[in-house]
């Protein structure tokens, strides 16, 4: 999928598929790259998330831009929507979870990070990732937080899959998730807030790097 997406993105950015042109059909692309239609479909979703194409039901996929948008959309919400909400919700939530979590919450979080370390299927990993963040929200002891994360769950999953496919985020995310769990288990509100803040900053930096490869931040340099 990554290879198909990279090839199509490069072709669009080089002008081989100009704005307004229809891309080859899923079956044609599948034959060209010798992959299944499901792989092609995922690659096309990636192009759409980048703002390079639009899919028209019954007509196909059309090029809409020669470069990615700075604020890609994941389902109902944009990346900016998600980051703003996550900063104001998930960071304090991690702090609450550190002081309110139960033994069952810690057991579930520990189980989830272990499964994510071992998981090789991207779709399954993304599902576990969503459950991980929902579990932290539930561990805060405030059911409203859980409802908020549930509301953006689909968009978070789409963004997570996008970052894994284009930014190779899984290994780093697994490490960051373990750091969050360790901080929550320690009972330190400050440490949990710091760990979640670091995680979200790395996620945002990864997305920025994908959308604007030449863009470099101080955080990227530190990485």
From TrEMBL:
Residues 1-66 form the HTH gntR-type domain. One of its GO terms (molecular function) is DNA binding. It comes from the Bacteria. Keywords: DNA-binding, Transcription, Transcription regulation. Gene3D superfamilies: GntR ligand-binding domain-like, Winged helix-like DNA-binding domain superfamily/Winged helix DNA-binding domain. PROSITE patterns: HTH_GNTR. The keyword Transferase does not apply. PANTHER family: TRANSCRIPTIONAL REGULATOR, GNTR FAMILY, UXU OPERON TRANSCRIPTIONAL REGULATOR. This is GntR family transcriptional regulator.
């Amino acid at each position: 999928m990554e290879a198909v997406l990279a090839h199509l993105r490069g072709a669009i950015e080089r002008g081989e598929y100009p704005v307004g042109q229809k891309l080859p059909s899923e079956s044609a692309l599948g034959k060209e790259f010798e992959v299944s239609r499901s792989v092609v479909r995922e690659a096309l979703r990636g192009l759409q998330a980048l703002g390079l194409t639009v899919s028209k039901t019954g007509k196909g996929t059309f090029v809409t831009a020669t470069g990615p948008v700075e604020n890609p959309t994941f389902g109902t919400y944009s990346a900016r929507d998600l980051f703003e909400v996550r900063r104001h919700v998930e960071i304090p939530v991690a702090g609450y979870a550190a002081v309110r979590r139960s033994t069952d919450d810690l057991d579930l979080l520990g189980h989830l990070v272990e499964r994510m370390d071992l998981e090789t299927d991207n779709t399954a990993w993304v599902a576990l990732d969503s459950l991980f963040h929902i579990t932290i929200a539930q561990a805060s002891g405030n059911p409203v937080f859980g409802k908020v994360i549930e509301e953006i769950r689909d968009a978070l999953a789409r963004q997570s899959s996008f970052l894994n496919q284009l930014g190779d985020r899984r290994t780093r995310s697994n490490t960051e998730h373990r750091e969050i769990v360790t901080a929550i288990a320690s009972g330190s509100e400050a440490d949990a807030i710091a760990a979640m803040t670091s995680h979200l900053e790395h996620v945002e930096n990864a997305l920025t790097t994908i959308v604007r490869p030449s863009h470099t931040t101080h955080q990227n340099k530190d990485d």
